Amino acid sequence: MRSALIFLLALLTGGAASGLTAVAGEGAARSLLAGLAAAGLAVPFFNHLIAAEDGAGPVEENSNG
Known about the structure:
The protein is mainly α and 65 residues long. It has two helices and no strands. It has helices at residues 2-23, 28-49. Helix 1 (2-23) packs antiparallel against helix 2. The longest helix is centred in the N-terminal third of the chain and has 22 residues, at 2-23.
């Protein structure tokens, strides 16, 4: 389920980048490359953003001094 969400968000990001590049007047090839690049960078971004919970909370250091 998490992977499907990550790839869906990457697909939407790539589509938006491709569409905006096409509207800006670039050619179809540049629009496609911009969309693919954005989607490729979006996958690790959303993977990190939607990190799997491992049950551990934030690390707190106890200092007695």
